[in-house]
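Lab notebook, bench 4. We co-purified these components, and the gel suggests they stay together. Before we commit to crystallization screens, I want a quick structural picture of the whole thing.
Request: model the full complex, all chains together.
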Amino acid sequence: MDAVSYPQPSVIDFISKHLVPLQIAADNKELGSRYGAKWTPLLLLLDASGKEHYRTLGFFAPEELIPSLLLGMAKASFDRAERPAAIQHCERILQEFPKSGSAPEAIYLKGVAGYIETHEVNHLKELHKTLQRDFPASTWAMRASPYGLL
Amino acid sequence: MAIQWLKSFDEARTAAEKSGKLILLDFFNPN
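Here is the predicted assembly.
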């Protein structure tokens, strides 16, 4: 990550604008143990209280790292019931990184957040339809399959 | 230009508190 993804200008810009970057050795006694750091690279998104909202394990290429971090930001917003913000992060993934590995989960999360926000079942039907059309082999299409019965 | 990584968890928490941003914690291999 230090050699390939972090030096990319788009990654530097994104992280500097949207996140508080913190690097800690995985063998750090307190934090390594607290967050179960067993292998690297391991990235976590935490809120100011230290609560974990998202983690990724393994290398991410620059073009996958930003959508992955956006997905983590969406999940943190969703966890805190800030659903409009979660939807915005998901929409950014789908507009700017529509073919990324984070896109199927963004479709799912956006639809679920929309449903909770409005109680409109169309959000669930739509996420199912979109996943079946664009990512039929993804596990998110499978997870959404019950919504095809609505 | 490079990412300005903090090295202290407390410092990161304070920055997150003030800015409303999430902390990106990167555990790296020290070896």
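Chain A is about 55% helix and 10% strand. Worth comparing against the SEC data before the next meeting. Chain A has a mean pLDDT of 97.
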